[in-house]
Write a structure and sequence with these properties.
Residues 173-242 form the DUF2470 domain. This protein is an alpha+beta fold. It has helices at 19-29, 68-75, 112-118, 155-158, 166-182, 184-194, 232-246; strands at 32-38, 44-50, 52-53, 59-64, 78-84, 96-106, 131-144, 150-154, 203-208, 211-216, 219-224. It has seven helices and eleven strands.
Length: 249
C-alpha cells in the first residue's frame, strides 16, 4: 500500500465534494506511490517509487535502469500509479487516486529543480547515467475519496492548465528559495492554521498555477489558491491572501 503525504483536507459533508480538487491534492502532495507495470509474461508487477509532478501535474519518476519496473516499461510503457493518503484507523477509509496511461522518457535535467526540491536525498545519484526520468502521460484517473465518493476523471479534467503561465514556471525556483529564506513563518502558518497539520519547521517545496506544496520531514501537503496564478506577482498576491486568512484577517 502506498504511503503518501497529507493532501488538503477533504471537504466536509455540508460544503460539497470537489473530486478534482481532492485528486489534484493527492497527486501534488504524494512523494511516494505504487507503480504497476506489466512483465514480459503479461503479469502485473507493483513497486514503490519516488514521485514528483511536472508543472501540469503529470507524474514524474526517477528510474534506475536496474529496476524491474524499468525493464517492464521498456517493453510495454503502459502503467498505473496509486497515490494514497494513509492515516490513522481504517486505511480504506482514506482517499486515494489511481492514474493510468503510458510512460515516456523526458530530459531529467529540465526537471532537476522540481525533483530535488521534493527529493533532496536523491542528489547523490540524480546525475548518474543509469538513472533516467519518466513522465506518466495519464489517460485518466479513478478517485476513491470515501463512501459514495468514487469518481472517474479524465486527464483533461485533472490536469493543470499551464498555458500563459510560463513566467510562473520559470520563477518557481526563485519563489521557493525566497519563501524558505525569508518567509518560513508564513509557510508554518499555512500548515498549522489552514491545513490543521502539526507544528514544525515546514518548508516551501513548489508552486503551480493552482496552489503550492509544503513539506515537513518527508510529509507533504498541497494548499490550493483562491484563484489561478500565471506570474510570480500573482503567486505573491495569493500567498499574501493565505497569510491573511491564516491570521484570521
Amino acid at each position: 500500500m502506498t504511503t503518501a503525504a497529507s493532501a488538503a483536507p477533504e471537504p466536509t459533508a455540508g460544503s460539497g465534494f470537489d473530486p478534482i480538487g481532492v485528486a489534484r491534492a493527492l497527486l501534488r502532495s504524494s512523494r511516494r506511490a505504487s507503480l504497476a507495470t506489466l512483465g514480459p509474461d503479461g503479469a502485473p508487477y507493483v513497486s514503490l517509487v519516488a514521485l514528483a509532478t511536472a508543472p501540469d501535474g503529470a507524474p514524474l519518476l526517477l528510474v534506475s535502469n536496474l529496476a524491474r519496473h524499468a525493464h517492464n516499461l521498456a517493453s510495454d510503457p503502459r502503467a498505473s500509479l496509486l497515490c494514497a493518503d494513509v492515516g490513522a484507523g481504517d486505511p480504506l477509509a482514506h482517499p486515494r487516486v489511481t492514474l493510468f496511461g503510458a510512460c515516456v522518457a523526458v530530459d531529467k535535467t529540465q526537471q532537476t529543480t522540481r525533483w530535488l526540491a521534493r527529493h533532496p536525498e536523491s542528489a547523490m545519484y540524480f546525475t548518474f547515467s543509469d538513472f533516467h526520468m519518466l513522465r506518466l502521460e495519464p489517460r485518466g484517473a479513478h478517485l476513491v475519496a470515501g463512501f459514495g465518493r468514487i469518481v472517474d476523471l479524465s486527464w483533461v479534467e485533472l490536469r493543470t492548465d499551464i498555458a500563459g503561465a510560463e513566467g510562473l514556471v520559470a520563477a518557481e525556483e526563485g519563489i521557493v528559495a525566497h519563501m524558505n529564506e525569508d518567509h518560513a513563518d508564513a509557510t508554518r502558518l499555512y500548515a498549522t492554521k489552514l491545513l490543521e497539520l502539526p507544528d514544525g519547521d515546514w518548508r516551501f517545496e513548489g508552486v503551480d498555477p493552482l496552489g503550492c506544496e509544503i513539506a515537513l520531514d518527508g510529509r507533504a501537503a498541497y494548499l490550493p489558491f483562491s484563484a489561478p496564478a500565471t506570474t510570480a506577482g500573482d503567486v505573491r498576491k495569493r500567498l499574501v491572501e493565505l497569510v491573511a486568512k491564516a491570521r484570521g484577517g
